Write a sequence for this structure.
């Protein structure tokens, strides 16, 4: 009887051991690759920042479902669209968190990050106006460049029979650079007259005097605004008050704010910023539309992880070389390539605001 009991105990013990082994989760021994982002999650540009954060998470979630040789972790910090905070966050991400890559949006942050990441040989990928954010071997910029945007703007102005234009430009490096290129193109072409060009300081809330100064020389066929949220919304309000109508266009600015009632029916030029497939995927997941730079930021993390996976140890130099080999790739923004300066080459398009959404205008 004792032998039978001992035998049963042994069988039960063996069975328990087997069950215990089944419950043991095998440790993940893959190398951990940390990436970080400095984004404006609060303040005027929070919609852009939150959209970029969600896009990063979407790309990361999709990669986490694959069989990768590395494990990827994302650290996101709120910079409030403040250059000083961006600098502090970047130093923290690089020196404390030991990230392999930093992601940003817009030049106010990207221009701060680029010198730091270049010095520390850390990959920096952004969606920012101008070529400066991509200066340096380790820096990349994913936004349709000024030359492409302004060329399309001039083409559309002429196509619509515009003979005169008034320009309202925010005094920030991105807006002034883009406006200067557009202004030069208009002058060289010679078919459109610039009635007036006024530079306003960031934070301006009353545009009546600025608009009145332009229309004193004759009311232009259309006004062009280049600024930072909520500049375009305020300009549209005071255009209605001063001229009785909202005859306004821009490059990108209409999609930087979720409240687009002021722009209903207006056309504008938009950077490559999201295919229908990506936009629908994003909206289905988060219940909200993707904003400017969201699709670009998704592509940036997607590109980095792919380049990291292709390299032996996710070494920065290897990653850069892999990124520079990208050519005619289909991504969240559509088809694009990366040139030898680290600048993504993509195509802008003409769109119109319909029911609060940016709809492509068919040629």
């Amino acid at each position: 009887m004792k032998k039978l009991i001992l035998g049963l105990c042994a069988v039960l013990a063996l069975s328990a051991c087997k069950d215990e082994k089944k419950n043991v989760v095998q440790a993940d021994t893959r190398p951990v690759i940390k990436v970080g982002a400095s984004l404006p999650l609060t303040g005027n540009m929070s919609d852009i920042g939150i959209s970029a954060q969600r896009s990063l998470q979407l790309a990361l979630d999709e990669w986490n479902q694959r069989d990768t040789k590395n494990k990827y972790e994302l650290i996101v910090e709120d910079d409030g669209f403040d250059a000083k905070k961006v600098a502090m966050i970047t130093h923290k991400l690089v020196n404390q968190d030991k990230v392999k890559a930093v992601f940003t949006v817009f030049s106010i942050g990207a221009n701060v990050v680029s010198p730091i990441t270049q010095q520390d040989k850390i990959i920096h990928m952004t969606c920012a106006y101008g070529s400066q954010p991509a200066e340096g071997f380790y820096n990349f910029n994913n936004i349709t460049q000024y030359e492409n945007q302004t060329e399309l703007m001039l083409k559309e102005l002429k196509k619509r029979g515009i003979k005169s234009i008034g320009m309202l430009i925010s005094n920030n490096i991105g807006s002034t650079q883009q406006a200067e290129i557009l202004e030069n193109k208009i002058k060289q072409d010679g078919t459109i007259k610039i009635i007036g060009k006024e530079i306003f300081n960031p934070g301006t809330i009353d545009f009546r005097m600025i608009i009145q100064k332009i229309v004193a020389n004759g009311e232009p066929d259309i006004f062009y605004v280049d600024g930072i949220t909520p500049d375009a919304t305020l300009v549209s309000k005071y255009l209605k008050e001063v001229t009785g109508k909202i005859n306004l266009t821009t490059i990108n600015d209409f999609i930087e704010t979720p409240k687009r009632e002021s722009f209903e029916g207006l056309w504008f030029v938009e950077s490559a910023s999201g295919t229908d497939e990506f936009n629908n995927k994003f909206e289905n997941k988060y219940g909200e539309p993707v904003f400017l730079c969201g699709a670009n930021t998704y592509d940036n993390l997607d590109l980095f992880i792919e380049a990291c996976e292709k390299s032996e140890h996710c070494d920065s130099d290897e990653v850069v070389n892999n990124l520079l080999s990208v050519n005619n790739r289909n991504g969240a923004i559509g088809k694009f390539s990366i040139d030898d300066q680290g600048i993504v080459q993509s195509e802008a398009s003409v769109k119109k605001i319909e029911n609060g959404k940016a709809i492509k205008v068919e040629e």
Q: What stands out?
A: Residues 2-23 form the longest helix (22 residues).
